[in-house]
Amino acid sequence: MTTGLIPGDQPSDPRPTDALPEQRREPVGPEALHVDNRSRSSVITARAAATFEPVGRSVASARSFVRDTLQGWGFADIVDDAVVLTSELVTNAVVHAGTSAEVRCLRSDEGVRIEVSDRYPEREIPVQSTAVNMGSPDREGGRGLQLCAALAGRWGVEYTPTHKNVWFQLDLPQRPVGTRAAGPPLPADLLPLADGRVRVAVVQIDRAGTITAWNEDAEELFGHGADQVIGKPLTDLAAWPHTPGTGTGIAEALQLSRWEGSYGIRAATGRVIPVYASHLRVRDTDGEPSTVCLLVRDHERAVLQTPVRLTSADQKSTSDSQSSDPFEVFIGSPAPDDLDGLLQRTVERARDMLDGDAAFLLLATDDETELEVRASTGLPSARQRFARVPVEAGPGRYGSARMPAVHDDLTAVPGAVPLLAGTGMRSVVTVPLKVEGRLTGSLGVAAEAPGRYSNEDALRLQFAADRIALAVESARLGELERLRRGSLSFLVEASDLLAGTLDRDQTLALMAQMTVPTLATWCAVYTIADQASEPYLSYVLHEDEELIDGIKSLLSKIPPPDPVPTPGARLWSAPGEAARQSALRSSMHSLSLGDSPHRVGATVGPTLATAQAVGGETVVLPLVARNRVIGMLTLGKPTDEHFRQEILELAEDLSRRAALALDNARLYSERTAISQSLQRSLLPPELPEIEGVEVEVIYRAAGEGNEVGGDFYDVFPIHDGAYGFAIGDVCGTGPEAAAVTGLARHALRLLAREGFGGPAVLERLNSAILDEGERSRFLTLLYGEVRPQQDGSAVLKVVCAGHPLPLRLRQDGTVEPAAEPQPLLGVMDDLELYEETVVLDPGDVLLCVTDGVTERREGRRMLGDDGLADVLTTCTGLTAGAVAARVMRAVERFASDAPSDDMAILAMRVAGIQQD
């Protein structure tokens, strides 16, 4: 594509020389009878030109070129008509004629003239004499010229030997100075209704999004004083819509030059007040940009909403009420990517065009099997929005949405149009929206009186639907793309959050918090422990926390949904029916007791609130993991609201990820419980009380979730007032080391109680470890027996097999080893071990540790035996518990990193035997 924009007073003719006036030309069109289409008495002030190749994407490029050009010239009022006409004419050139097309935009004091030239001059233009009616609107040929006749002030077709040039001119609207738009006068009964004084809140926001001004009406509407909000971000108060991938964020809206739309403001009471806002970007005297926000209550939006712009066809029909032109057309004025605004404008214009009481527009799902209500007027929109009906409902029902249909009296054919059931509408006309032969939607207009519509009305509505179908489909695809991008981001974030925890309760909470309020108003999660168990209500969440208890109570009284593994969302009507019955029973019971209306309202209030909260559509999605249903995710809407199909598909994707995360958390919890139970069995249940001797143990296993590792300890009674004690270290950490730990501890107790002395006990334990074969691990072990004496001392018999030497702390503060080193266990078959005897005086302390204590490192520094002895010298006069605690505190402070090895500390202090 090549473009050029040349401003000037009188530019040269932009067309090729072979298209100049002296060449052959054959003007065709309504103006050809009385005006020379090539005459240009007005002064051209600017022009823009672009050439487009004969490919399909050129049509969209041409639309963008014309839109950008006219908006740059400040002619936003005629952009819609110009884009539609350009699209039709360029499509004829690049698709049907198969040649390149040149588009020229010419600005003059009379209006804007747009010319589309192609290189296929022999193509016949379908005309019927000079009449504007150029055949049936269902014909493919000549549709572009029908649009020119309907929308353009002047138009024509010109031929040269090498080119065909189709042009149209759009006149600029005449407005008084100082006005931006004007609407037709309305009867008093059609004017917007306000329930009191209309207050317009004026809020000014600086470039950082901070509130800088807050007027009195804002204080009255929201309850916040100016001193309470000035200086705070608007995002603290704004409750922006959370549907992923749709709408504009609050930050983006504040950056736009002009924006209109609905959102909520959190009042001082905590309630969210729906407002309609108009944002205008301004610049102050210092050149700093800021945004002025005008806000009114949402039902008073007519105060701020941009008036509907009338097209030339509308203006003609308004001025001539007797006009019966069957090809009356309309185009919605919202931006192409504003799907909701476009659809709402469409139904309002369709209703007005056929003088109906209501209108509705449905969009088809991707598989064209269902239609989803997306816009309506004159109907209970909250109940109808996103409701779905089948495309082919069979005889006596909706019929087929693929063909136009006229129903003279709906009471004669009950259920012919399910959406109108109970609305009081009697007659209806429906037509399909099609793009390239594919059904994309359905447009209908209804009236309360029977027999209002004829086949001619259906033809007029069909022509209007054909006009709007392409714009609707384009906007729908744009919305779908944004929703999909938002959905992908949502699922990525959800996956990250779910993968970040293996805690079951936290996983349940995350599931609920990700769905409310993004996907639903409330949700409940049911879990199933095993195939024989009933579903259990595990978690309930509502966007209003005050309603959670009421919903939980309601759901606990009804049977849970069936755990069906079929993928996808299915409707569940039980909560809504139970809520309505509960509200009705509460109301009747209060009235039967003779309560006053005020007291009845206070009693039934919470029940009614719960009924309204769960009274809308409720769906259930199975949580399936590893081919087993482990629960159900229930999503709900408030009274009369429905889910969008895209939201249900997103919820289905989320449920699959959540189910796997929940099952992983379950498996992890089960395995952790088993592991912890087995590990606890490897530790002594409790320490015995030894008369005259204080005993304290501190144990730390390395690794997350481990209670026992390769280090172990034990203190147990043997016989005749003697007690055995042991502290050991198996090579390595983790479950393999813990297995040897269990073997060593139980073998020590058994052999010691059989009467074997220390060396014999360790030699037999060494043989047992070697018998394990490849599973064996070498083991360092300090084993001893302590026997309190009558004089208050204690006699110890100790064998130190490769273990760090025990340290003795005397009352004078001296520290010395209490044993000699001997070979470790699990390495050699023949061991010759010997026993050493140590006498501890009253006040003496024996400290035994594993190498996780002495080998504590910080960089190249290591605590070592000397460092441990230094710590022990400071423990004179301390109890055994205080000694163990001080040693552990010193070890932890020695390095900043978490310990990488198991640690065990056994401290014994001889306190002396108390005499009676």
Task: Describe the protein.
37% of the residues are buried. Mean pLDDT is 78; it is low at 2-40, 123-142, 177-182, 243-247, 308-336, 394-398 and 596-605. Strand 5 (154-159) and strand 6 form a beta hairpin. This protein is 32% helix and 25% strand. It is elongated, with a radius of gyration of 43 Å. It is an alpha+beta fold. The protein contains 20 helices and 35 strands. Residues 21-30 have a biased composition (Basic and acidic residues).
Q: Find the count of extended strands (DSSP E, 2+ residues).
A: 35
Residue runs with pLDDT of under 50 for 5 or more positions: 2-40, 123-142, 177-182, 243-247, 308-336, 394-398, 596-605
Helix content range of the residues, please? 25-40%
Q: Biggest sheet, in brief?
A: 6 strands, antiparallel
Structural class: alpha+beta
Rg calc: 43 Å
What is the straight-line distance between the termini? 110 Å
Shape: elongated
Pfam family, one: SpoIIE
Organism: Streptomyces echinoruber
Biased composition (Low complexity): 311-325
Domain PAS: 202-232
Write a short abstract of this structure.
This protein is α+β, with helices and mostly antiparallel strands and 916 residues long. The chain is built from 20 helices and 35 strands.
List the helices and strands and how they pair.
Elements: E1 2-7, E2 44-52, H1 57-73, H2 79-97, E3 101-108, E4 111-118, H3 143-151, E5 154-159, E6 164-171, E7 201-206, E8 211-214, H4 216-222, H5 226-229, E9 238-239, H6 250-255, E10 258-266, E11 272-283, E12 289-297, H7 312-319, H8 339-353, E13 358-364, E14 370-377, H9 381-384, E15 388-390, E16 405-407, E17 427-435, E18 438-447, H10 455-499, H11 504-515, E19 522-527, E20 536-542, H12 548-556, E21 570-571, H13 574-592, H14 597-614, E22 618-625, E23 628-636, H15 645-680, E24 693-700, E25 711-717, E26 723-730, H16 735-753, H17 758-770, E27 779-788, E28 794-801, E29 807-809, E30 815-817, E31 836-840, E32 845-849, H18 851-854, E33 857-858, E34 861-862, H19 864-873, H20 880-894, E35 903-910
Antiparallel strand pairs: 1-2, 2-3, 3-4, 4-6, 5-6, 7-8, 7-12, 9-10, 10-11, 11-12, 13-14, 13-18, 14-15, 16-17, 17-18, 19-20, 19-23, 21-22, 22-23, 24-35, 25-26, 26-27, 27-28, 28-31, 29-30, 29-32, 32-35, 33-34
Helix pairs in contact: 1-2, 2-3, 8-10, 10-15, 11-15, 13-14, 16-17
